[in-house]
Amino acid sequence: MNSTRWIEQRRHAMQVSALAAGALALLAGSAIAAPLVKECAKDGKFIIGFAQANNAEPYRQHVNDDLVAAAKAVPQFTLQIADGAGNVNTQTSQVDNFITQKVDLLLISPFEAAPLTPAVARAMKAGIPVIELDRKTNGDPGKDYTAFIGGDNYKIALEAGQFTASKLLPDGGEVAVLEGLPSSTPAVERLNGFKDGVKGNTKIKIVAEQAADWLPDKAQTAFAAMLQAHPDIKVVYASNDMMAAGALLAAKGAGKDVKIIGTDGLPGPAGGIRAVASGDWAATFTYPTGAKEAIDMAKSILLDCAATVPTNVTVPTLAITAANAKALVGN
């Protein structure tokens, strides 16, 4: 074989290899660009199921209201809300029902992380995108579930701790903490965040901490006992507004002037914003519902046929203090 012919054959082989590589790249690219859901269309009709942890909690109802309003603005969406009633078995059954119904997308605020993890896995296996709202199951977003949307529980509580250390007790003093349901991710993150936040003031001592499971009656009982054991408590941090309301009743019952910090910043007559505006609490830190962001993500997946979405969406918080509470009461 002469050298000219060998060079031509070599060049031809390289061109074939390049074409084959290009074809493979196109195939790989098309696979990567596949939509997150099997059926999607701008003018389609879609059912979104929301497995709510517990409708009885005011914050949860606030989430529901915001979701209903956001979904109503999208004619293609029908939103179905199932109340887990604070029971992991009930919520698991409801998720399985949504899977059986073949909803187009699942939203979930898991009552507890570990028990709801298998149900979320079943939804993902069935090809249903899962957006976790406010609370997480075990695993990683983008892999074990589609995405997480919520506030940064640790950061919110960290700010509450720093506010305590710098504004409420600059000269130090005794502090108590009312924790949420210990098996839920927000409870753990808020507890750790607050404890880290007060570390900047070495004169502050956390003398009591107890779980009250987000409930005002449990918080009232727990804080009453704390005040009996530690009558010099100056500040109590409650991991949600409901427990802050319970703490206020306990403080009044004991005749104690205790500065109270809530978390959630709920609107309305019984919400944390009004409690701060009226002077009953020192502060509360808003925990955004993430409802608008969740419906926007659902639009990307179901209407825009998105191949990817952000796996973690953090919705910012706002500190409600005496400086801004009265202006926010009507909002």
Q: Features of this protein?
A:
single chain, 331 residues, alpha/beta, Rossmann fold, 2 domains, 6-stranded mixed β-sheet, 19% strand
Distance between the termini: 86 Å
Estimated radius of gyration: 26 Å
The CATH superfamily of the largest domain is known as: Response regulator
Largest sheet: 6 strands, parallel
Helix content: 40-55%
**How many E strands?**
12
SSE order, one letter for each helix or strand = HEHEHEHEEHEHEHEHEHEHEEH
CATH-defined architecture of the largest domain: 3-Layer(aba) Sandwich
Apparent shape? elongated
Number of distinct helices? 11
Q: Given this structure, which CATH class of the largest domain is correct?
A: Alpha Beta
The total number of structural domains is 2
Low-confidence stretches: 16-31
* CATH topology-level name of the largest domain: Rossmann fold
The percent range for strand residues is 15-25%
Question: What's the quick description here?
Answer:
The protein has 331 residues and is of the alpha/beta class. Helix content is 46%, strand content 19%.
Give an overview in words.
The protein has 11 helices and 12 strands. The protein is α/β, with parallel strands linked by helices and 331 residues long. The chain folds into 2 domains: 46-150 and 289-314, Rossmann fold, CATH 3.40.50; 153-287, Response regulator (Rossmann fold, 3-Layer(aba) Sandwich), CATH 3.40.50.2300. The strands form 2 sheets. The protein has a 6-stranded parallel sheet, with helices on both faces. It is elongated and about 60 Å long. Mean pLDDT is 91; it is low at 16-31.
